[in-house]
Design a protein that fits this description.
Distance between the termini: 38 Å
CATH topology: Carbamate kinase
CATH architecture: 3-Layer(aba) Sandwich
CATH class: Alpha Beta
Strand order of the largest sheet: 5-8-2-1-11-13-14-12
Largest sheet: 8 strands, mixed
Shape: globular
Structural class: alpha/beta
């Protein structure tokens, strides 16, 4: 796309108020879905993260990696079974999840950030016992609920000028490894850090009044409205836990929470640094 110099200048000038309002503040981004498996989108997301970091925004990137986990489990000959949308995880599967998320996926993202001109440190919830967990449900095996977040580990990395990139495996006091839902981890981390905003990247445009009509996107919603839409079935299925995480993040002290479509190139910058924005913004009250 060819853009004349005048338009380029106008874009930068229009972004200035947003850069000023976010500079020096923490923004937590949950990264997952199709934006992780599409290389073009992956590059777009990392470019957004680096640009925000360069203008003084303290970005924390929390990632999942479900498709990668499924691929590796298949290579190991292990069947994937889900209960209530969560992966049933025996001890061997938990070790594979740790290998894939804290190893392969995390280090690929760290490397890509560096290639794009940023400085990043890869972490998992095991590092510094950042994410202490306990067993969520006996049926699920080593799937964890968050017991405690040690935010100091993350803050230390930010203070040194790096972008923390966090994979969502945790551990208990005995050192057992747990697979933890990435939306839940990102929301809890955002709350513990008292983040200015929490951006949850998904594969759809946000909360819709009509699931089959993208033009019915709800651009702004408060907590009570969101609960009402869950109760009447407008928010349903896989969007329910995402909406619950957004509500929790607000209740935990995050100023602004967004669900955005991560399949749109540079969706993070559009939401953060432009007038238009995309997706649905959750607020405590109107």
């Amino acid at each position: 796309m060819n853009i004349c110099n005048k338009v380029r200048a106008e874009i930068l000038v229009n972004a200035l108020p947003y850069i000023k309002s976010y500079s020096g503040k923490i923004v937590v981004v949950k990264y997952g879905g199709n934006a992780m498996v599409n290389n073009e989108l992956k590059n777009s997301v990392m470019e957004d993260i680096v640009l925000m970091w360069l203008v003084g925004i303290k970005v924390v990137l929390v990632h999942g990696g479900g498709p990668e986990i499924s691929n590796i489990l298949e290579k190991f000959g292990k069947e994937t079974k889900f209960i209530d949308g969560l992966r049933q995880t025996d001890k061997e599967t938990a070790e594979i999840v740790q290998m894939v998320l804290a190893g392969k996926v995390n280090k690929e993202l760290v490397n890509l950030i560096q290639v794009k001109g940023g400085q990043a440190i890869g972490l998992s919830g095991v590092d510094g016992h950042m994410i202490l967990a306990n067993k969520k449900d006996e049926r699920l095996g080593y799937v964890g609920d968050i017991k405690k977040i040690n935010a100091k580990v993350i803050l230390d990395v930010i203070e040194k000028g790096y972008i923390p990139i966090i994979s969502t495996v945790g551990c208990d006091e005995n050192g057992d490894i747990y697979n933890i839902n990435a939306d839940t981890v990102a929301a809890k981390i955002a709350g513990e850090l008292e983040a200015e905003s929490f951006i949850n990247m998904t594969d759809i445009s946000g909360i819709l009044k009509d699931k089959d009509d993208a033009s019915t996107l709800i651009p702004k919603i408060n907590i009570e409205e969101a609960k009402s839409l869950m109760n009447n079935g407008t928010i349903y299925g896989g969007m329910i836990p995402k909406a619950e995480c957004c509500i929790n993040a607000i209740n935990w002290g995050v100023k602004k929470v967004f669900i955005i479509d991560g399949t749109i190139p540079h969706a993070i910058l559009i939401e953060t640094l432009t007038d238009e924005g995309i997706g649905t913004m959750f607020v405590k009250e109107n």
